[in-house]
Specification:
Blueprint: H1 2-13, E1 16-17, H2 18-25, H3 29-41, E2 45-51, E3 59-64, E4 70-77, E5 80-87, E6 92-99, H4 105-108, H5 111-126, E7 133-140, E8 143-144, E9 151-152, H6 165-173, E10 177-181, H7 182-193, E11 202-207, E12 211-217, E13 220-221, H8 259-263, H9 265-274, H10 282-290, H11 295-318, E14 322-326, H12 328-348, E15 354-357, H13 364-381
Parallel strand pairs: 4-7, 7-10, 11-14, 14-15
Antiparallel strand pairs: 1-3, 2-3, 4-5, 5-6, 8-9, 11-12, 12-13
Helix pairs in contact: 2-3, 5-6, 7-13, 9-10, 10-11, 10-12, 11-12
Length: 385
């Protein structure tokens, strides 16, 4: 326990002296010295310079040996695969993107090959080989059914829906492979370094071309019997056509009905055009709306009403203390949209959760995949028992 506590402190705080490590862990100087000697002999920590400019002899600084383990994180969507490689401290060492349209017939047959290409490209950028990798976490739309190990709720990723995808990828990469829902990983990123930092119970609403949610309870994502917890894009709501035929019935970007039909990116663009706001993207549409009194105000109000209606259904069931808004639509709408949604949600739902915008920088799915891979790797590598 002392070893693990010391290693976590060195990861979180960076290089520390023996004295400072003893203060933070509550260990005596002799015990802290023995601990560092044991970890250094195991190759888990190393000396890195010393503290100077203070009375007395210079104090040796220690850090986690970054080369102890490396992890890969991947984010998959309809347009391709992005891979990132980091060392055990979380330092990003290399990235690589493989462009591939998921619905192209040849792409659907080459899933394992494309993942391997992405990972090897990231490893090459980091100056590493496949033998240096210890864990791999992949974020995709949809979710693995825990009973069948088949990806569900993602008809637009046909190459990922075989029953042996994880096993095939693990064999190709030489590491354990975890496939996780992309919105769940975005929630991991938000809890690690974003608007939900330190929160054990919250809902993350992802409103983009696709619409989904992560429900985090007790610090863990709620998965459901088939892995489909949080697939709120299919949720039937007033004013939206029903998504009939189940989650595999359509490959249309709008999901064919439900909440996603009301608030997804294609709908926002359509509402903007109907309001006379010409735009080629959601960001352009809502920027134009923010500058256009009258029509722009009406667009923001309509969009906020629709988002709040969907969130009210979620809040009524889960009663979270916090809802985090993310995805292209929420980022483009910014604080103005958040405030309008909060106002409408207060009218529609008895529970009144806090409503915050995402503060994760970069690509949240990739950040969450890295966090998950690092946690798994540290559990294995830092176990000195």
């Amino acid at each position: 326990m002392n070893d693990r506590a010391a290693l976590e402190l060195l990861v979180d705080l960076g290089p520390l002296t023996r004295t400072r490590l003893g203060e933070l862990t509550g260990l005596s100087k002799p015990t802290a010295s023995q601990l560092l000697g044991r970890l250094e002999a195991a190759g888990l920590v190393r000396g890195v310079g010393s503290v100077t400019g203070r009375p007395g002899p210079n104090a040796q600084l220690y850090e986690v040996n970054p080369s102890v383990a490396h992890v890969a994180a991947l984010a998959v969507d309809e347009e391709g695969i992005t891979a990132a490689v980091a060392d055990i401290t979380g330092t990003l060492l290399g990235e690589h993107h493989v462009r591939a349209r998921a619905l192209d017939e040849d792409v659907a047959r080459r899933t394992g090959e494309l993942v391997t290409e992405a990972v090897r490209g990231a490893l090459a950028a980091a100056g590493l080989g496949t033998g240096d990798l210890h864990r791999t976490v992949i974020g995709t739309p949809g979710a693995l059914d825990p009973r069948t190990r088949v990806l569900r709720y993602a008809p637009h990723l046909p190459g990922w829906q075989g029953p042996g995808v994880c096993e095939e990828l693990a064999g190709r990469l030489g590491t354990p492979v975890v496939i996780e829902n992309d919105v769940n990983l975005a929630a991991v990123a938000e809890r690690h370094a974003g608007a939900a930092r330190g929160e054990d119970d919250f809902v993350l609403a992802w409103i983009d071309e696709g619409v989904g949610a992560a429900v985090v309870l007790g610090g863990r994502p709620l998965r459901g019997a088939t892995g489909g917890a949080g697939e709120i894009g299919y949720m039937p709501l007033p004013g939206a056509p029903l998504a009939r035929g189940g989650p595999e019935a359509t490959v249309a970007p709008d999901g064919g009905g439900g909440f996603q039909q009301l608030v997804g990116s294609p709908t926002v663009l359509r509402l903007a055009r109907e309001a006379g706001l010409a735009a080629g993207s959601v960001h352009e549409a809502l920027d134009a709306a923010a500058r256009t009194p009258g029509a722009g105000d009406a667009l923001f109000a309509e969009l906020a009403e629709r988002i709040a209606t969907g969130l009210a259904a979620v809040v009524a069931v889960v009663d979270p203390g916090l809802v985090v808004l993310t995805g292209e639509v929420c980022r483009a709408g910014g604080e103005r949209l958040r405030a309008l949604v909060e106002s409408r949600l207060d009218d529609l739902a008895l529970p009144r959760p806090q409503l915050r915008l995402s503060t994760v920088e970069g690509r949240p799915v990739l950040v969450g995949a890295l966090c998950t891979a690092l946690a798994d790797a540290r559990d294995a590598v830092f176990d000195t028992a």
